[in-house]
């Protein structure tokens, strides 16, 4: 198969979807890899390193899309890429279709096969290609939240961990999944008083066992959240419904209950956000203020630490990408239920329920597009 790796062009996105080690693995399996010039520089990888591993460097993004049978990316295509995508071309990347109607319709019209990192799912319901970036984003959420709590950044002017004789900040974490767990660990490690809310009692019991003494667990419901936001300094939203739009747990009217300068970090913004007042921002302009409350809603948070993020992401994605290249997407998805669940849009049809529900589109059963297995 011919693999194409374009340079990411989303605002301040410095990750790259394949490392030289990944190129070498594809070459070992007999595939050709074409990488756009300077695609890896943001992550500290030179064109020469790709060439040494066996890749061919192409000068433009148009060249990469034109030659490739499978495009491996980090972030969803943006408008300038839509026209480059060919019918029956396989795209393996983060899509987050439920947060963008424009992207969904563009990919339906393209006739491409869109296999989304974020909905590849194991039998235990874990999301192996979302986990590494959720780990990075969860840890970064506390880092960024602490920064924006500083007065010059618009925050309350409170040090997250406090000092002797002065109480530390109160941190509220919405969701006890990967993002929430990593956020709580980081905030607790810095000395903050942390509260995690989640709807799952078994998950809260687990977190209660593994977290340090300065982390409390509370069942998630509107009443409890309304009570907690009144004394919270930093709120981190880490709620995820795989492939679907995130629920709005912090409503606009709750902002009036908060103290001015409270900071909210919406890690769920890729899936539409879990704060009603959220809208996506960039690393260039990361925050905005609504009713005195600072909102940080950067849609590609891990892109700010591309060296760490690229290695963490490609460690997880490469084995799946190799399967797709070795077997072709249909056979790979028939034989691997995890990959099968990654199919979102296929040749003009919506095959993932969360995406169909988000935009009221007809849902085609995924087995219909995979076809029957012919036994010789």
UniProtKB/TrEMBL annotation:
This is Alanine dehydrogenase. It catalyses: L-alanine + NAD(+) + H2O = pyruvate + NH4(+) + NADH + H(+). It holds the Pfam family AlaDh_PNT_C. Substrate binds at residues 15, 75. Residues 4-137 form the Alanine dehydrogenase/pyridine nucleotide transhydrogenase N-terminal domain. Residues 149-297 form the Alanine dehydrogenase/pyridine nucleotide transhydrogenase NAD(H)-binding domain. The gene is ald. Belongs to the AlaDH/PNT family. GO terms for biological process: L-alanine catabolic process.
């Amino acid at each position: 198969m011919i693999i194409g790796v374009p340079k990411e062009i989303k605002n301040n996105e410095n990750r790259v979807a394949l490392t030289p080690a990944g190129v070498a693995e594809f070459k070992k399996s007999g595939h050709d890899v074409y990488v756009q010039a300077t695609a890896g520089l943001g992550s500290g990888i030179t064109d020469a390193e790709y060439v040494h591993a066996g890749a061919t460097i192409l000068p433009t993004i148009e060249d990469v899309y034109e030659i490739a049978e499978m495009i491996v990316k980090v972030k969803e295509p943006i408008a300038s890429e839509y026209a480059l995508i060919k019918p029956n071309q396989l795209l393996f990347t983060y899509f987050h279709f439920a947060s963008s109607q424009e992207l969904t319709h563009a990919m339906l019209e393209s006739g491409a096969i869109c296999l989304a990192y974020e909905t590849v799912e194991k039998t235990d319901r874990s999301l192996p290609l979302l986990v590494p970036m959720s780990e990075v984003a969860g840890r970064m959420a506390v880092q960024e939240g602490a920064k924006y709590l500083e007065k010059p950044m618009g925050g309350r002017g409170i040090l997250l961990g406090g000092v002797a004789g002065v109480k530390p900040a109160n941190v509220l974490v919405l969701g006890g999944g990967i993002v929430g767990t990593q956020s709580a660990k980081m905030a607790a490690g810095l000395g903050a008083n942390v509260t995690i809310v989640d709807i799952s009692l078994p998950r809260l019991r687990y977190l209660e066992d593994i977290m340090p003494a300065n982390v409390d667990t509370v069942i998630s419901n509107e009443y409890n959240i309304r009570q907690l936001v009144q004394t919270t300094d930093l709120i981190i939203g880490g709620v995820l419904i795989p492939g679907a739009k995130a629920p709005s747990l912090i409503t606009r009217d709750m902002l009036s209950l908060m103290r001015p300068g409270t900071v909210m970090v919406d890690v769920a913004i890729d899936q539409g956000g879990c704060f009603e007042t959220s809208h996506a921002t960039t690393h260039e302009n990361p925050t905005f203020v609504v009713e005195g409350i600072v909102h940080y809603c950067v849609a590609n948070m891990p892109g700010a630490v591309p060296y760490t993020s690229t290695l963490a992401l490609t460690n997880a994605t490469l084995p799946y990408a190799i399967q797709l290249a070795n077997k072709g997407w249909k056979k790979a998805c028939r034989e691997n239920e995890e990959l099968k669940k990654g199919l979102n849009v296929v040749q003009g049809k919506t095959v993932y329920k969360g995406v169909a529900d988000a935009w009221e589109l007809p849902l085609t059963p995924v087995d219909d597009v995979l076809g029957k297995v012919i036994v010789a």
